[in-house]
Amino acid sequence: MKKTLFLSLLLSLLVSAQSSALTKETELDQLTPTLAHKRETDLITHFISNYHYKKTPLDDQLSGKILDKYIESLDPNRSYFIAEDINGFEKYRTKLDDSLQKADLLPAYEIFKVFRKRIDQRVNFALQQLDKKQDFTIDEDYIFDRKESPWANSLTDLDEIWRKRLKNDILSLKLSGKKPDELKDVLKKRYESLARRTHQLNSEDVFQFFMNAYTTSIEPHTSYFSPRTSENFDIQMRLSLEGIGAVLQSEDENTIVKEIIVGGPADLNKELQPEDKIVGVGQGTKEPVVDVVGWRLDDVVDLIRGPKDSYVRLEIIPKSAGVGGARKLITLKRNKINLEEQAAKSYLIELPVKGSKETKKIGVIDLPTFYLDFAALSRGEKDYRSSTRDVNKLIQDLRKENIEGLIIDLRNNGGGSLLEATSLTGLFIETGPVVQVKDAIGRIEINDDSDPSIAYSGPLAVLVNRYSASASEIFSGAIQDYKRGVIIGEPTFGKGTVQNLIDLNKFDDRSKNTLGHLKTTIAQFFRISGSSTQHRGVVPDIIYPVTKDNADYGERAYKNALPWASVKPAPYHAALAPVEAFAYAREQHENRIARDPALKLLSDEINDLEILQNKHSVSLNEKERKAEREINEQKSQQREKRYEEIAKNLPALIKHENHLRKVDVKKGNKSEQAEQEDIELIEAARILDDLIDETSKPASKPQLVNKD
User: Which own/partner contact pairs does 43-48 have at CB distance under 8 Å and 24+ positions apart?
Assistant: First the structure.
């Protein structure tokens, strides 16, 4: 999941708003920096040089990184520039640091003008090729991932690359059912749109590209937001607006779903999944679907936006289908994000006891985010909403059900309130430190739990995955360090840094709100053991075999992410680790993987997905392409059928008061993603059950729970 960070607009809530898509073409002589841009450059370089957590001198070495990042931001797949262009840009390799210090931005605009010229050449070539007859019986491949490929030596070489690109586009549309005239019209509009939208990029856009090349050369979570992007960022931070509830990002020339927001229409619909590609957008239920391949991300967002209760159709290529996979059309009803859906929920899992008709009850609390109603808290309201308060209440309800173990489910929980991560940890320990925060000048502050009360002292498990980040990693890391419970799942995201958003307008009286915002990294989290959650994340005690390689996910996917680090441990008292019990539970888990059809199905599915994701080329032979697609679709259908069969035999998820969704395992009522989540959850319950059994044996002295 390698990302083009500085082209990404993280729009959690795609809200209703009048389209702000650019309509006026920008002349080349208009592509020059403004006085506002020069003022912003002075402010940005000042804040980064003096207040950023990572002290990085603005020198020749950084200049070279900025140049590479800027070229990558414009042409990430090496499809427009040629080697001659790249060699010509080398004169700036040691000059961009001087340009930034002097607020001389002309080099950025000169490079962009070359880029626009190359776009025009490629579009003209593609349009000329559209009328040529294609032979899909020839055995040749198209390399669609050229990030690591050498730059084309000449325009002739680039023509050959684009000949295959066009042929692939035609074949993809042909296999999706488009007729010759129809697919020709789609591609003509696609390429003309590429040229038009590039010509519409203005001085502000070029400045944003270049500033983000600078900021992300230092660290991936530091970025500049233009006034227009700042408005969209504000949208992301407010949970009262309307949309589909998805975080989108731009990758190469595609719009990728980065995250599904809990409680939004996409989450409730279940058909849209992370890493699906959005290739078309249609308004209502009857309007034609507009091809959006190659569009700017904010223009795609503008197209998806719409009023509450209106419909939008998204044409997607599911992650599971691969690059050449079949397209799928889904319909979503725009709505407000349902905050109640983001609240903690409880479950009961009944596990059959061997040799008995009795069952063992394992409680589950699903926490999608660490939330806190700051406004109500600041007003002094006694009944303010918080994740800790809600979880505490759910625990008391579950205890009345006589649960023998508890699972805190943090899968896909991207974080939230640091205060809540600390107080939630306090529900399971008496008192003590929870997390250490180190600022840019090296000061370390320890956040601790001072409340001696414990909400639950029984056997505990925390379930995480690669999307569990930030506050989730603080909580799970503390539980692991205290040895208060067992951590199960995948290595977590690895985001252990703190960002601050700076409104540049507040530092310039002359700007009159014409400046943007700077998001900069100001601190880093460390566990009480002294280990950072940064980069490595939290490594579970028992790791699910759901992925073979975590290198392309989370913080580890960023080449210049802050590295793992350590500080002095905080003073704390951990329980004795139940080493023998952990080893026993791990062994039982591995035995189930070998024989359990559900876990084996998960492992096989991940293997198939990794094969698809590791492909860098696709066949341009129609017969071969069809056969490959049919095999993938057949595998997907077989998996879905097996999931349905397996789900019928899963232990029942019992409804607990009004806090639970009711899980229906009947055919057609659950997506593959939901089946996978249930299988992982049931396995976590089995692992906890194994630990309970093993630690309850008389010969087993170490306890799973520290009740002191």
Answer: 43/504, 43/507, 43/508, 43/515, 43/518, 44/211, 44/214, 44/215, 44/224, 44/504, 44/518, 45/100, 45/101, 47/502, 47/518, 47/520, 48/214, 48/215, 48/218, 48/222, 48/518, 48/520
Q: Which residues are catalytic?
A: 470, 481, 495
CA angle 649, 655, 657 (to 5 degrees): 170
Judgement on whether residues 265 and 246 belong to the same structural domain of the protein:
yes
Domain containing 105: what range? 17-224
Residue 498, classed as helix, strand or coil, is strand
Do residues 414 and 472 touch, judged by C-beta distance below 8 A?
Answer: yes
- 254 and 387 co-located in one domain: no
Beta bridge pairs of residue 364: 347, 407
Q: Is 663 helix (H, G, I), strand (E, B) or coil?
A: coil
Same domain? 145 vs 218: yes
CA dihedral 461, 466, 469, 473 (to 10 degrees): 40
Residues 6+ away with beta carbon under 8 Å from 252: 4, 76, 77
**Percent above pLDDT 90 for the chain:** 53
- Three-state secondary structure call for residue 330: strand
Specify which residues 486 forms β-bridges with: 461
150 shares a domain with 256: no
Residue 136: name the closest of 619, 622, 624, 617 by CA.
622
Is 514 within 8 Å of 505 (Cβ atoms)? Answer: yes
pLDDT of residue 237: 41
Nearest to 406 by CA among 431, 384, 421, 424: 424
Domains in the chain, number: 3
Q: Using CA atoms in the order 106, 109, 113, 115, what is the torsion angle rounded to 10 degrees?
A: 130
Q: What is the pLDDT of residue 645?
A: 72
Asked if residue 663 has pLDDT above 90, the reply is no
Place of tokens 């800027």: 70
Buried b (16+ CB within 10 A) or exposed e, 543-578: bbebbeebeebbbbbbeebbebeebeebebeebeeb
Q: Are residues 95 and 120 in the same domain?
A: yes
Are the C-beta atoms of residues 527 and 435 closer than 8 Å to each other?
Answer: yes
**Predicted confidence (pLDDT) per residue in 308-365, tens digit:** 889 999 999 888 777 767 788 999 998 876 666 678 999 888 888 877 778 889 999 9
Q: Computed from CA positions of residues 617, 623, 628, 629, in that sequence, does the dihedral angle turn out positive or negative?
A: positive
Distance between CA 194 and CA 85 in Å, rounded?
20
Flag whether 232 is in a domain.
Answer: no
Cβ(415)–Cβ(369) below 8 Å: yes
Residue with tokens 């061997």: 354
Secondary-structure percent of the chain, ordered helix, strand, coil, rounded to 5: 40, 15, 40
pLDDT in tens, 289-311: 888 888 878 788 888 878 888 99
Instruction: Please state, in angstroms and rounded to a whole number, the distance separating the CA atoms of residues 96 and 214.
Output: 9
